[in-house]
Design a protein that fits this description.
Blueprint: E1 2-9, H1 15-27, E2 33-42, H2 50-53, E3 62-69, H3 92-95, E4 102-105, E5 109-110, H4 116-119, E6 128-130, H5 139-148, E7 162-165, H6 167-172, H7 176-182, H8 190-198, E8 203-205, E9 212-213, H9 214-222, H10 224-227, H11 233-242, E10 245-246, H12 260-269
Parallel strand pairs: 1-2, 1-4, 2-3, 6-8, 9-10
Antiparallel strand pairs: 4-7, 5-10, 6-7
Helix pairs in contact: 1-12
């Protein structure tokens, strides 16, 4: 079996979409893939595990383990309605020491293919593997990275919602204390800014199929010639046909967005399906 460890972090507000995301993950697993799933949650909230635990009634190619996070981020900056669990991903190398490399994902996603090939990515001396937000064709983000974060835009600026984490190197270079210090600063994009600052120049660019955000999809539809300067036709085809859909703007369970029909299809197949909803 191919063992693929993957981490999610959320509170009770996101148990429903988490179940949908994990359903899509397990439904699209190869027969020889086993997912070792870790869920990070706060010690201050009793996570509703009932629906998560009933997934074993439908699938056998996984296990779920829970890890708690204490008060490390009680003073972390909050903005845009995004609460402190967003910072939990910064502690993954410390909280899950049994793996030297691990995948992290937000729960506002739909997986449409097996993740083993992504997990096999050689990160080399990079701390992370991630998908660039498209900084090359986003002038406002370029200015933000250069003027606010004081970083070189040519190094890229990467999404934090889907990551391959080089845990062994992060532990070796003792980055987590720096993550914690940066998390207290008022960065608009919170953990995404923290990771891009602390790991600047040491993030391996991945195919957009690993994190097909709503924004990147909109660019593919409306600025295709521009996007083709940075990604191949094969990369774009892979992303749009079977890549991880990341609903990083409007959520499909709340309103209209790209690929909402795909989310609802998996919702109807999940263990949280309610006809009325």
């Amino acid at each position: 079996m191919n063992n693929v460890p993957i981490v999610f972090a959320f509170d009770n507000n996101l148990v429903m979409p988490a179940c949908v995301a994990i359903t899509s993950l397990l439904k699209n697993a190869n027969p020889d893939t086993f997912y070792d799933i870790f869920i990070l949650h706060s010690t201050k909230e009793k996570l509703n595990k009932e629906k998560l635990n009933t997934l074993v009634n439908q699938y056998t190619n996984f296990r779920i383990q829970y890890r708690t996070v204490g008060d490390e981020f009680d003073n972390a900056f909050e903005v845009r309605g995004i609460t402190t669990p967003t910072y939990f991903r910064l502690l993954i190398p410390e909280l899950i020491p049994e793996y030297d490399k691990i995948i992290y994902s937000d729960v506002d996603v739909i997986f449409r293919e097996d993740l083993h090939d992504f997990y096999q990515t050689d990160l080399g001396d990079n701390y992370l593997g991630g998908v660039d937000v498209g900084i090359a064709f986003r002038p406002k983000i370029q200015h933000y990275v250069k003027d606010t974060l004081k970083l070189d835009p040519s190094n890229g600026y990467f999404y934090a919602g889907n990551l391959i984490i080089n845990s062994v190197l992060i532990r070796k270079d003792e980055l987590i204390p720096r993550f914690k210090v940066l998390a207290k600063k008022a960065y608009y994009y919170q953990d995404m800014d923290v990771l891009n600052i602390a790991c600047n120049g040491r993030i391996k660019p991945l195919s957009p199929a690993f994190c097909l955000s709503n924004y990147l999809l909109e660019c593919i539809y409306n600025q295709r010639e521009t996007v083709l300067k940075y990604y191949s036709k094969q990369d774009i085809q892979h992303a749009t046909e079977s890549g991880i859909i990341h609903y990083n703007g409007e959520k499909p369970w709340k309103g209209w967005c790209y690929n909402q029909d795909i989310w609802w299809s998996y919702y109807r197949q999940s263990n949280v399906y309610e006809e009325a909803f």
